[in-house]
């Protein structure tokens, strides 16, 4: 198989000129570029990308850690990063963890082994103390706020959004409000939701909090349990519009009217929410993914707050 030295000899140029052509450097004369490219085509030469990456000092590849796919929130962040990667000429490698701590550290080790230029963490299993040491090998950017100066972040002020939702429901006359969540108390967002609830409504009746909701089926089960309570809620805040869709489906099976019998508000302004005219808290996660990607390639450790918005529709 041909190598870079043979190409240089046949083309009548230096090895460094061939290297510049392979790496698409601008400062190569057109005649030399054409001569090198002709030899490459004639010899059907395929460059060793790993070797080129080592010479260039970058892989043009960003790792994107998500706990799982087929989830609208993480899919939206990934979508934002993919938009930017195409625009900037980078590749995104999706790294699913299922919140496995060892798997997450295995992915972070790819920075140390120079397989990635940087990593975006949408949601983490490990404490920051276990993650921070890897930031010396490449950029690590979080999609949640962190005070650590070694880590850049593109984040939403989720706590403020939860406060605003619960205050809005209270102003609409709702005093018995339930909510769903994904992970339990190990999740920062769940802790923030509970804290915001208590600030607006006082103590939380445990039965008004339903965890482990990830999809429409989980929402249906949440609706089934919450709407069977003796003092059932008059409003439910779902942690996603798909989950809100499941709650809606169960409520309609009881011939309940929305919003007269039950108010529903979802999250992330997903297609099902738009179709069913749900109010929704849009955390603008596509923008979060875009900004997180930009922070990685800019080697920036800034803390960038992405504003949320509450979309008011007929479900409240």
In short:
The chain is of the alpha/beta class and 316 residues long.
Explain what you see.
- The protein is α/β, with parallel strands linked by helices.
- It has 3 domains: 4-56, 434 Repressor (Amino-terminal Domain) (Orthogonal Bundle), CATH 1.10.260; 61-156 and 286-308, Response regulator (Rossmann fold); 158-282, Response regulator (Rossmann fold), CATH 3.40.50.2300.
- It has 13 helices and 12 strands.
- It has a 6-stranded parallel β-sheet, sandwiched between helices.
- It is elongated, with a radius of gyration of 25 Å.
- The mean pLDDT is 92.
- N-to-C span: 68 Å
CATH architecture classification of the largest domain: 3-Layer(aba) Sandwich
Shape: elongated
| Strand neighbour order, sheet with most strands | 2-1-3-4-5-11
Helix content: 40-55%
Strands, count: 12
Protein name: LacI family DNA-binding transcriptional regulator
Keywords: DNA-binding, Transcription, Transcription regulation
GO molecular function: DNA-binding transcription factor activity; transcription cis-regulatory region binding
């Amino acid at each position: 198989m041909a190598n870079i030295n043979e190409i240089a000899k046949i083309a009548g140029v230096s090895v460094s000129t061939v290297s510049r052509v392979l790496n698409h450097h601008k400062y190569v004369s057109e005649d030399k570029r054409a001569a090198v490219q002709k030899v490459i085509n004639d010899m059907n030469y395929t460059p060793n990308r790993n070797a080129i990456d080592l010479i260039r000092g970058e892989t043009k590849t960003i790792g994107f850690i998500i706990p799982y796919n087929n989830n609208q929130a993480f899919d939206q962040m990934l979508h934002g990063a993919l938009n930017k990667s195409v625009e900037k000429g980078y590749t995104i490698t999706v790294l699913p963890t299922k919140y496995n701590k060892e798997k997450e550290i295995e992915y972070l080790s790819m920075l140390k082994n120079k397989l990635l230029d940087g990593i975006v963490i949408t949601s983490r299993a490990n404490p920051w103390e276990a993650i921070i040491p890897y930031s010396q090998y490449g950029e690590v950017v979080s999609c949640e706020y962190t005070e650590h100066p070694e880590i850049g972040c593109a984040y939403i002020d989720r706590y403020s959004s939860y406060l605003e939702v619960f205050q809005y429901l209270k102003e609409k006359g709702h005093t018995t409000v339930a909510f769903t969540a994904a992970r339990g108390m190990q999740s920062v967002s769940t802790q923030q939701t509970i804290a915001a609830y208590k600030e607006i409504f006082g103590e939380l009746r445990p039965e008004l909090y339903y965890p482990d909701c990830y999809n429409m089926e989980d929402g249906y089960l949440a609706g089934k349990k919450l709407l069977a309570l003796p003092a059932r809620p008059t409003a439910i805040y779902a942690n996603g519009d798909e989950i809100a869709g499941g709650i809606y489906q169960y409520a309609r099976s009881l011939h309940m009217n929305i919003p007269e019998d039950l108010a529903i508000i979802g999250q992330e302004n997903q297609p099902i929410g738009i179709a069913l005219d749900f109010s929704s808290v849009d955390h603008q996660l596509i923008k979060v993914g875009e900004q997180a990607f930009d922070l990685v390639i800019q080697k920036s450790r800034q803390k960038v707050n992405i504003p949320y918005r509450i979309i008011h529709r007929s479900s409240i």
